[in-house]
Design brief:
The complex is a heterodimer. By secondary structure, chain A is α+β, with helices and mostly antiparallel strands. Chain A has four domains: 104 residues, Alpha-Beta Plaits (2-Layer Sandwich), CATH 3.30.70; 162 residues, Sulfite Reductase Hemoprotein, domain 1, CATH 3.30.413.10; 83 residues, 2-Layer Sandwich (Alpha-Beta Plaits), CATH 3.30.70; 139 residues, Sulfite Reductase Hemoprotein, domain 1 (2-Layer Sandwich), CATH 3.30.413.10. Chain A has 18 helices and 20 strands. In chain A, a hairpin with a 4-residue loop joins strand 4 and strand 5. The termini of chain A are far apart. Chain B is α/β, with parallel strands linked by helices. Chain B has one domain. Helices cover 27% and strands 21% of the residues of chain B. Chain B has five helices and eight strands, in the order E-E-E-E-H-E-E-H-E-H-E-H-H. Chain B has an eight-stranded mixed beta sheet with strand order 2-1-8-7-6-5-4-3. The longest helix of chain B has 14 residues. The termini of chain B are far apart. The relative contact order of chain B is 0.15. Classes of the chains: A alpha+beta, B alpha/beta. Chains A and B meet through helix 1, helix 2, helix 6 and helix 9 of A and helix 2, helix 3 and helix 5 of B.
Chain lengths: 557, 169
């Protein structure tokens, strides 16, 4: 994992002091609330429904045990003893006081953590694959280039006030686990003739106008990463719309110009920047890559794998192939039924830190599915790790299954939300609380967002649930067939929305249609692709009053 | 009246913007004498006339203006002012970077409009060297703290053409 040098550390310490000063000037009235707003957002500080929310960056998902213990300390000292992991490698505190935030950031800086550019209309946290560096299907470890991008984006003077937020994701594996097709810039690391480079995708995004990104350059040699990004950002900074925040993302610019014209603008700009001082050097790549060398793996140990059913299930769902024989990557589930997805208590954080120290070289990752990964666990340690994780409520064997849902904090916390999302998630978990049934249903992505900003990535869920507001009441719109990965696409809306109470039944009916129609080897998505959405739609809306009948029903009620 | 920060101190401002009132057009507006910041449209319409009547010429650019169009004219300008209609409108940073880094503009580059304390560091980095700090803001605090919140930077820009990784021993 990357270790800060003196300058890296000095910059985040200076950031804490800058923010302390900004808070003080806001309190004294020197800064108006409107002037303070973008500044606090660029430090991850939102003013929310009940209290401010502070969003801490976990750059490209990597964290060490000391950092997690510090988050536990902050949760206990300044919050209500828990935190929430998001879909973009961030950690959120929901109950801090604004005046405490400089001190919180000061504590975090002691372990090289910060909230820099975790919100606001600027270059956001870089995200990648939670299995980077260990995945069996990895072509190239994306983390050194992700760190190079982290440094480049940090306080970039030209791009601190973009038309809208800007998110970059980078993936180096055959299966895309970083949702690269739905980022402002998605980078696929590829090899061509033995040379490392990128496929550059621009203009993807979820939110209220979900659009799959398009390729602007099929192959970019790695040395040009920063100059090429600089060209993209400069075109966007100058020409992106600033008159309407809903039309301000780069995806709208790419759509309005057409990807060919957009690419021509970028290439014209890049012609001036190419081979300039920002061109990466082998020395710099090597300097950064030296931080991501493999840990001291041991030789594989032969041993009996206990045959307990619960353990076998956990092995099946919560452990993942590792490129080193005798090792596995392990997902600690933050999707225990009845708990808000992605939430973790201070005690659990400390336990995870201990487990990381004992079993995984003191490091961990946060997945965009809102779980924790211990990436380097020796197979002979798996049983002991499972027992400890189970004790801590972190071993629900549901990874990739229906109840491992992605869910935003929703209307219970978030000011933007139109509808609560956690109660819906919990109601669905309660309905599907039988692990045998969950295993029988098999792999399925259920994503819930409390509003069209799509923090729960509902568009790419196999089943997507979107909270909407109708006359001050919360309703939920359902989409089917969305997916992430190499064939990423958006789900289709099945019809009119449902009340929260109806949602467990709706999901239940969708699952039943799958079970009745599936071929033996089919996952949910395979059956859906084969039979189409109509059978699901018909079952869900069967006997449901709509049109005039519904109006009459409403009147009668 | 904005407070002009230049060379690390408050400074007297002799320049005035030529503002077009309703009904006035760049082609026909009267050209006042003195140190005038001409909007791009006026400069483009009246270039020859301005050159013959003004020894000292200033230009005012909006975020949407294309600096590419006046790349050949830069030697005429003592001052180029770039307008920030709102401090969150970041187009001016790219214009400044282009004027300094690509077109090698050597004159004064002045930030005008909604210019605030917390943007000064970024503005200085991309190449501004004069700042019309918004009226009512504390210029002394801005001078003492606004320009140096950070002691180093990762990226190449106008004030430091080498990225940090090329400056490592």
């Amino acid at each position: 994992m990357y270790k800060y040098d003196a300058v890296d550390r000095q910059l985040i310490n200076e950031r804490v002091e800058q923010f302390r000063d900004q808070v003080a000037r806001w309190q004294s009235g020197e800064l108006t609330s409107d002037e303070f707003r973008p500044l606090r957002l660029q430090n991850g500080l939102y003013v929310q429904r009940h209290a401010p929310m502070l969003r801490i960056a976990v750059p490209y998902a990597m964290m060490n045990s000391a950092q997690l213990r510090k988050l536990a300390f902050v949760a206990r000292t300044y919050d209500r003893g828990y935190a929430h992991f998001t879909t973009r490698h961030n950690c959120q505190f929901n109950w801090p006081k604004i005046e405490d935030c400089p001190d919180i950031l000061g504590h975090l800086a002691e372990v090289d953590m910060h909230a820099i550019q975790t919100s606001g209309n600027c270059l956001r946290n870089i995200t990648t694959d939670q299995f980077a560096g260990v995945a069996a299907d990895e072509v190239i470890d994306p983390r050194p280039l992700a760190e190079i991008l982290r440094q480049w984006t940090t306080f970039h003077p030209e791009f601190a006030f973009l038309p809208r937020k800007f998110k970059i994701a980078i993936s180096g594996s055959r299966d895309d686990r970083a949702v690269t097709w739905f980022h402002d810039i998605g980078l696929h690391l590829v090899e061509r003739d033995g040379e490392l480079g990128f496929r550059v995708i621009v203009g993807g995004g979820l939110g209220r106008t979900p659009i799959r990104g398009q390729i602007v350059r099929e192959y970019l040699p790695w040395q040009h990463l920063l100059t090429y990004c600089e060209a993209i950002l400069r075109v966007y900074n100058r020409d992106g719309r600033r008159d309407n925040p809903y039309k301000a993302r780069i995806k709208i610019l790419v759509q309005s110009l057409g990807v060919e014209a957009f690419a021509r603008h970028v290439e014209a700009e890049w012609a001036y920047l190419k081979d300039g001082p920002a061109t990466l050097t082998q020395a710099e790549y090597d300097r950064i890559a030296a931080h991501f060398t493999a840990p001291a793996y041991s030789a594989a140990v032969d041993g009996e794998i206990p045959a307990e059913k619960a353990f076998t299930r956990w092995l099946e769902r919560n452990t993942h192939p590792h490129k080193v024989p005798g090792y596995k990557a392990v997902t600690l589930s933050l999707k225990k039924h009845g708990v808000p997805p992605g939430d973790i208590t201070a005690e659990q954080m400390e336990i995870v830190a201990d487990l990381a120290d004992r079993y995984s070289f003191g490091e961990l990752r946060i997945s965009h599915e809102q779980n924790i990964i211990l990436a380097d666990v020796q197979q002979s340690d798996l049983h002991a790790l499972w027992l400890a994780a189970k004790e801590a409520g972190l071993a629900t064997s549901n990874i990739g299954l229906l109840t491992d849902m992605i869910c935003c904090p929703g209307g219970d916390f978030c000011d933007l939300a139109n509808a609560p999302s956690i109660p819906v998630a919990n109601a669905i978990q309660a309905r599907f609380d039988d692990l045998d049934y969950l295993f029988d249903i098999g792999e399925i992505d259920l994503n819930i967002s409390g509003c069209m900003n799509a923090c729960g990535h509902h568009h790419v869920g196999h089943i997507g649930v979107l909270g909407v507001d109708k006359n001050d009441a919360a309703f939920y719109q359902v989409t089917l067939g969305g997916r992430q990965g190499n064939d990423a696409k958006l789900g289709k809306v099945i019809g009119p929305s449902f009340s929260a109470d109806e949602m467990p039944d709706v999901v239940d009916k969708i699952i039943k249609v799958y079970i009745e129609n599936r071929h033996p080897d089919e996952r949910f998505l395979d059956t859906l692709d084969r039979i189409g959405i109509d059978p699901f739609k018909n079952r869900v809306y069967e006997g449901r009053a709509h049109g005039k009948a519904k109006a009459a029903e409403t009147e009668a009620a | 009246m904005a407070q002009l920060i230049k060379n690390g101190a408050l400074s007297a401002d002799t320049w005035q913007v030529l503002e077009l009132a309703e009904g006035q057009s760049p082609e026909t507006v009267a050209l006042p004498a003195g140190d005038i910041l001409f909007p791009l449209a006026v400069w483009q319409a009246r270039k020859t006339e301005i050159i013959s009547t003004h020894k000292r010429i200033g230009l005012l650019l909006k975020g949407s203006d294309r600096v590419e169009d006046i790349a050949g004219d830069l030697d005429y300008f003592i001052v180029i002012a770039i307008d920030f209609p709102k401090f969150v409108d970041g187009r001016g940073y790219s214009l400044s970077a282009l004027l300094r880094q690509r077109y090698r503009f050597q004159g004064e580059l002045r930030a005008v409009g909604d210019v605030l304390h917390d943007q000064l560091f970024f503005m200085q980095r991309v190449g501004f060297d004069a700042y019309a700090l918004k009226d009512g803001k504390d210029a002394a605090i801005a001078l003492s703290k606004g320009f140096a919140p950070f002691s180093d930077a990762y990226q190449a820009s106008t004030d430091q053409p080498q990225p940090r990784f090329r400056r490592l021993a």
